[in-house]
Write a structure and sequence with these properties.
Chain lengths: 200, 273
């Protein structure tokens, strides 16, 4: 295949996935610059390895797998940053059983009241292993088979990580929702006083 | 006396272990990824376990909320940067034969083919035969094309559409149509599922024909490699089966499937996207 044709085929196969690839990268870091660099590095590696893409089953899964390696390599290089990153230590099983907002109705209410930014912030707070699986399944809509392929995991592990990841995320969102509700109620009396002073 | 199993565990301990194990199946149940037998076992457990039922409801809410998270778009500047990078980077050199890191076409068509590499069992003649077989299997028309689930879903819904669904109740405004078409009247709209994911259907009357437009998720739309390639090369994909025709067109962040009687589905240029 001549080079121009090869380039054109690469672009036509990968272009439709660029934004989604960037979305996945962006949701794994708070830095726009890092997300852009990861996306660029992923497409560069994909282009260099394009001749290896002889199986056309899932271009997107192939790109995600490369992105996964890019992110892992970057984390390895920045070991210091890794050490400084806050470790998430939560045992939310008790929280999920005891918290009043954990009941199905109130929980759904909390879910609907969260903005996308708040949901993404909670996902970003999850440990890598759980964040990836939750994000790729629930936001990107990958099947378990595709998840196994992208993350190089057996399907049983995919399901158990998803189970744990969703529980952790539910716990984080409940805590965040409860904190916001508390803050809101703490602010309200102040506003009433202010308006009372204004009228006086 | 509390009964013990062969490991010496008591019944409450066994039930607790089972409960923990089944908790890991809940995502599979929510996502429809469990085997039927697993689903039966889990349903039996759910009937008597409040904790798992609550967990199931939470996982459903969480999963639904996450599906609504909007996709992010990269800047035009980054798009340009990527285009320049690809343009400036030399094309991949042909690699020497090596074990591929990604499944290859051969193993897709012939999973047993990997056993051929077991050193020297098949000599030169064997390899020549294998090569002939591969060439034969890769020739157009020699293999049975794999059905495309999204196409099957929309054709099946078209064929089994109950007439009451076409009653003009709760019809959405024409501005919601994924693609407008001259001379058509929107007669019904509803929510459905295509390729295992949520989709919206819009039934249009065009003369004496009924045409249905489906707005489906981008993920489902680009799942099939033949569709992806055709969209990349020609801008659309069209199939004809059982006197029906389906046209696939890309939308911004989604996909459009148009299904109707064969020869009644308009050319893609007629759609206003």
């Amino acid at each position: 295949m001549d080079h121009a044709r090869q380039k054109q085929q690469f672009q036509s196969l990968t272009r439709p996935w660029r934004d989604r690839l960037f979305s996945v990268a962006r949701r794994q870091t708070r830095s726009l610059e890092i997300a852009e660099d990861w996306t660029q590095e992923t497409l560069l590696r994909a282009w260099r390895d394009f001749d290896q893409l002889t199986e056309t089953v899932a271009v997107y899964a192939w790109l995600l797998r490369i992105l996964n390696r890019v992110v892992a390599d970057d984390h390895r290089r920045n070991a210091r940053r890794q050490r400084l990153a806050p470790m998430l230590m939560i045992s939310d099983d008790n929280l999920l059983q005891d918290h009043p907002c954990a009941a199905p109705g109130p929980f759904e209410q909390i879910m609907q009241n969260q903005s996308d930014e708040q949901v993404i912030a909670a996902i970003q707070a999850l440990p890598d292993t759980f964040r990836q699986v939750v994000m790729l399944r629930d936001i990107e809509g990958l099947s378990y088979q595709e998840l196994g392929l992208v993350l190089n995991l057996p399907s049983g592990t995919v399901m158990s990580r998803l189970s744990r990841g969703r529980r952790l995320l539910a716990g984080l969102l409940i805590k965040a929702g409860a904190t916001r509700a508390r803050d809101k109620s703490a602010i309200r009396p102040l506003k009433i006083r202010e308006s009372a002073n204004d009228t006086a | 006396m509390t009964p013990h199993d062969t490991n010496g565990n008591t019944t409450p301990e066994r039930l607790s272990e089972l409960h923990l194990q089944l908790q890991d199946w809940l995502p599979g149940y929510v996502d429809g990824e469990l085997e039927p037998r697993q689903a039966d076992i889990l349903e039996a457990h759910l009937a008597g376990c409040d904790t798992c039922r609550a967990e199931l409801a939470r996982q459903r809410s969480l999963s639904m909320r996450l599906q609504q998270v909007a996709a992010l778009r990269m800047s035009a500047q980054l798009h340009r940067r990527l285009d320049t990078m690809i343009e400036d980077t030399p094309p991949p050199l042909a690699q020497p034969a090596r074990k591929p890191r990604w499944p290859v076409t051969l193993s897709r068509f012939m999973p047993q083919a990997r056993h051929f590499s077991v050193g020297g069992i098949i000599g030169t003649t064997g390899w020549a035969l294998a090569l002939c077989l591969i060439v034969f299997m890769l020739l157009p028309g020699t293999g049975t094309p794999k059905p495309i689930p999204m196409m099957g879903d929309v054709m099946q819904e078209y064929q089994s559409l109950p007439s009451e669904r076409l009653t003009p109740q709760n019809v959405r405004p024409e501005s919601d149509l994924p693609a407008r078409l001259a001379g058509c009247k929107l007669v019904a709209s509803w929510k459905t599922r295509v390729g295992g994911e949520p989709a919206e259907a819009f039934a249009l009357q065009r003369g004496e024909h009924l045409i249905i437009e489906y707005r489906i998720t981008e993920n489902v739309f680009y799942r099939n490699p033949d569709v992806r390639q055709a969209i990349a090369d020609f801008g659309d994909y069209r199939i004809r089966e059982n006197a029906l025709e389906v046209l696939a067109l890309p939308l911004k962040g989604a996909g459009l499937l148009v299904v109707g009687p064969a020869d009644a589905v308009p050319h893609r240029r007629e759609f206003i996207l």
